[in-house]
Amino acid sequence: MILTTLWRRRGIRLSLLLALAASAAAQPYATPIKVSSTEQPDAPVPAEKTAEPLLTMFPHSDKWPIFIAGQANIIFQAHGPFHSPYEGVNSLLGRGEYKTSLLGTLYLGAQAIRNPKYNLDAILDVESAGGRGDSEALGLAGFTNLDVVRNPSLGSAPYIARVQLHQTVGFSNTMVDQDRGPFALATKVPERRLEFHVGKMSMPDFVDINTIGSDSHLQFMNWTADNNGAWDYAADTRGYTYGIVSEYVDKGWSARYALALMPTVANGIDLDWNLRRASGQNVEFELRKSLLGHLLPEERKGTLRVLGFVNHAHMGLYRDAVKAYLAGAGSRPDITSVEKNSAVKYGFGFNAEQELTPDLRVFTRLGWNEGQHESYAYTEVDQTLEFGGDYSGRGWSRPADKVGVAFISNAIKRDHQEYLKLGGLGFILGDSKLNYAREDILEAYYNMHVWRGIYYALDAQYITHPGYNQDRGPVLFESVRMHVDF
User: Phi-psi bin for 293: left (phi > 0), alpha (psi -120 to 50), beta?
Assistant: First the structure.
């Protein structure tokens, strides 16, 4: 990931975005490699001899011990009116609406120790978030814009998103290449090594990564497309926590363990520093090899990841909240009235990706959690299934363009259903009633590289049974995204 500085402003108009796109499109796209002396001077340069386009506004040195980068992400998103016979406090609004979010990021890093075998990085990211999501990011378990902060009252003042140390401990003298990025600055690393990240971070920076479905700035926008919706990972309202990630990397596989702080309340901004009372623990195994064996050439890359997590936090059981309500406590079930310290929630995830051709890749995710304890930190999903893929624009001479399609089906368990049916509220859902059905999402995008680090994308998300309610919807979200890397 890159450091994210988030700004969001209301009312950025679609016409402005399209005008910027037209202006940027007039700029040169790529510089061809020089023609060799054996070729005709005026002959067209073959596609394979055309230089790859520059993907940032400014080139970044791999030799300088200091790393400075950033990005800005603007999303204009709208949906039209849809069938909505009733609405509750946390419903997606049935009338048409549109909102704009703006996310900016500043990534800073320095190599304190530059010995490849024992490299030490210091990382600092600063962010600012502004703007809004449709219906204030309520009413959908798979919300349509991952840039949206779930508590709009936090404001757009800049804040520190990440501050951490990254230590490498090498066990091999064999060095392999590594792409330099905001969380790892060395360009050569030992083939066998331990890595430690300690400090403020986001769990999806290191766990449940998928190169086809993890980047909401260049790929899918939906929360449950870019992350495993059933993974209730430790995070505050903005998606960050303090923790430690330890990872062993070998030639064809990796294993990682992450320990992080949980919020004091569901979807809260404050973290509980008492690890004996509250914590999020995650383990993941990653195998890097072709998943289809001899059916594909050996050079076709594939990756399989298996995740397990256990959360301890001040959580309640949906069943207890329903029982208390039926016994006469309150006007509706209230999960906060039955919360207990050190309650345990656990789950599993599966994540796979496979390259089929040089231009076509496919991926899938599966997720499950026990679903009896309240959804606490990410979103209200107890089971999820996702599959999709992307296709490079190399075939039409636009190698940095991408087309992507994904289908996601989310579900909740029976106790969770009953809680919402009787009028209970989660931190995202609550229509005051519930005629249950799975929340199904189909998302497609075209991401276009315009010039240097400027990208534009068109995105559509068709959602049936928003908030798991078959009395409402379907609804179509349409989005225009502008992204700048610098």
Answer: left
Omega of the bond leading into 474 within 30 degrees of 0 (cis):
yes
Q: Which is nearest to 300 in space by CA: 360, 253, 228?
A: 360
Q: Is the dihedral of CA 256, 257, 259, 265 positive or negative?
A: positive
Whole-number Å distance between alpha carbons of 249 and 194: 6
14, two tokens: 């679609």
The pLDDT assigned to 21 comes to 37
- Whether 230 contacts 411, CB under 8 Å: no
Would you tell me the crossing angle of helices 414-421 and 318-326 to the nearest 10 degrees?
A: 40
Q: Dihedral of CA 330/331/337/343: which sign?
A: positive
Q: What is the residue whose two structure tokens read 């804040």? A: 159
pLDDT in tens, 48-68: 445 677 889 888 888 899 999
Query: Which candidate, 419, 360, 226, 228, places its Cα nearest to that of 307?
Result: 228
**Who's near 216: CB < 8 A, 6+ residues apart?**
73, 145, 146, 147, 226
- Give the chain's length: 486
Q: Hey, CA dihedral for 327, 333, 337, 338, is it positive or negative?
A: positive
CB 413 within 8 A of CB 384: no
Contact (CB, 8 A) for 481 and 456: yes
Nearest C-alpha neighbor of 55 from the set 461, 319, 363, 398: 398
φ, ψ dihedrals at 246, nearest 5°:
-115, 135
Residue 104 reports pLDDT greater than 80? yes
Fold of 14-33+43-485: Porin (2.40.160)
Note the pLDDT tens digit of each residue in 72-89.
999 999 999 999 999 999
Residue 253's nearest CA partner among 301, 203, 303 is 303
Residues 6+ apart with CB under 8 A from 15: none
Alpha-carbon distance of 102 to 133, in angstroms, equals 10
Contact residues for 295 (Cβ-Cβ < 8 A; gap 6+): none
Q: Hey, where are the domains in the chain?
A: 14-33+43-485
Q: What is the pTM of this model?
A: 0.87
pLDDT of residue 51: 61
Residues 399 and 58: their CA atoms lie apart, in Å, by 19
Residue 293 burial by Cβ neighbours in a 10 Å radius (0-12, 13-18, 19+): exposed
Q: Which two tokens stand for residue 75?
A: 């999303």
Q: Write out the H or E segment, with its range, that includes residue 363.
A: strand 360-369
